[in-house]
Description:
Elements: H1 2-12, H2 17-38, H3 44-56, H4 60-82, H5 101-112, H6 133-146, H7 158-174, E1 182-186, H8 189-208, E2 214-218, H9 223-232, E3 235-239, H10 250-256, E4 261-267, H11 279-289, E5 293-297, H12 301-304, E6 324-329, E7 342-346, H13 349-355, E8 357-359, E9 367-369, H14 378-414, E10 421-422, E11 430-434, H15 440-449, E12 455-457, E13 462-466, H16 476-492, H17 502-509, H18 515-529, H19 545-548, H20 551-566
Parallel strand pairs: 2-3, 2-4, 4-5, 5-6
Antiparallel strand pairs: 1-7, 6-7, 8-9, 10-11, 11-13, 12-13
Helix pairs in contact: 4-18, 6-14, 7-14, 8-9, 8-13, 14-16, 15-16, 15-17
The structure holds pyridoxal-5'-phosphate (PLP).
Residues 188-190, 222, 224, 267, 270-271, 296, 298-299, 330, 342 line the site of pyridoxal-5'-phosphate (PLP).
Amino acid sequence: MDLFKTHVNAFFGKKEPWQVATITASSTLLLVWLYQFVSQEQSITERLKKKFFKLVRYVPSVRRKIESEFENIQKTFEDDMMKYGDEMGYIVKLPEDGWHRKDILKKIDDYLELGHYKWDEGFVSGAVYNFDSKINELVTKVYGKTAYTNPLHPDIFPGICKMEAEVIRMVAHLFNGNSNACGSITTGGTESILLACKAYRDYGREVNGIEKPNMVIPVTAHSAFDKAAQYFGITVKTVKLDPKTYQVDLKAMERAINKNTIMLVGSAPNYPYGVMDDIEKIAKLARKYRIPLHVDACLGGFLVAFMKRAGYPLPKFDFSVKGVTSISCDPHKYGFTPKGSSIILYADKEYRHHQYTVTVNWPGGIYGSPTISGSRAGANVATTWACLLYHGFDGYVETTKAIVDTAKYIESKLRNVDGIFIYGTPVTSVIAMGSKVFDIFRLSDSMNQKGWNLNTLQYPSGMHICVTLMHTKDGVADNFIKDVETFVKEIMKDPGKPVEGKMAIYGVSQTIPDRSIVGDFTRLFLDSLYFTPKKPKKLSKSGGSKLEKFSSIDNQAESTDVTLMNE
Ligand SMILES: *Cc1c(COP(=O)(O)O)cnc(C)c1O
């Protein structure tokens, strides 16, 4: 201490008081800045790279080039959207007089005709998991009865709340939750994941005093975790995969954990490869470091829960594993409910409390809401409840068996196709392909031209099919296999040929080091979804080539209009 004093006095000895003050203040500020710079989760090289690309964009020639590229891309996206429905015209303001309901229903059919993929014949990966006229009739009726209900008002609609409570109990039971298990119905997998992340952020802060939260997740974890991180100010630490199994690398996961880690994640299974992480081993880490563990079973929840009974036993992945603190699973995927239905489950009420949002000083009253929405569609609760009861345990065992049988069949056939390989070991319904000899996007492109809508993967390049009940129908799987075989054979005649067309853009985008540019492209794409032309053709009530065939109905509609007014 004396030595320290001598040194400091020697340093400041000849300085004037104002100098002492200034030096002290500025060096403290510098230290704080340095500490903040070094202590950020994102690596210094990563941040320097970002800074560099940002600076490069200030160079006028670079900026002009990028801007003109953006204009081209925007035009391409917009033309792509125009291709659907420009002919029909656009509605851009409210009609003076309300439309007749017959006209509305007819127009809906026209709009639904716009897409060209035959999703109802099994040409599409994932997206629509089943389309069954009986279920459709049931959910339409249930929706009709409950369309105006709202669980935000439990005093007015206690029956809807009862349904939600029952759905949670049924699903918690499927995942081996005990009587402490609890949860909420949400609008989709993304909301379920957002809520788990929100709950753990607040739990981390309030119980463990974590102010700079991070989550440690496999690179394959769904992008909803990244969304949650962006929304809630959490840093994402992604963990690489084991190159053989495509499961998360557990050693790397352990290294990524630090005192600010609020949650770990494993997928059962993941979206890109349909591979299930080793949940039991991740849970071991979770217990060792006392960190909550979320298991994302959004995609495969309504398969994995029935696999054992369907004849495909799996390693443990649910609440029977000590350390698993929450599970997300989506009825609107393999539960075959209409879209807008997911479940977030917790092993314990303590976590769910941190999910809630409570405002106690608002002049509008004390306001507590369990999920992200305020008002919620009671009809989503009711249709979910109805679908679960309609299928029952055996019903889901049957659909699971049909789907997994088909997926295994496709997988086994694809493994024999010379030139492609399968990523890891698919456990449920997703089968991902890659190639070491040709650009796999050429296969994507060919399949697409044949009417298949599959999903593209990057880092590394790949494509996958997510098998649904639509693919279990006679001939669909064989048709798919035959097309893959034929195209791969064709491609293998000249495996070095580069990919052309749209898929080339996808390939190139992976090689753009400035990811913020890829982000900007993506924003333009999203813009194009909201596109209407500056001078839109008016949507005529009977105009447009596709609509002409309805003109006779149109006349009918006019006459019914009168009748209805008199009703
Ligand atoms: C679909 C999916 C989600 C997100 O679900 P949404 O309902 O699309 O929001 C999350 N995780 C996995 C593995 C998924 O496949």
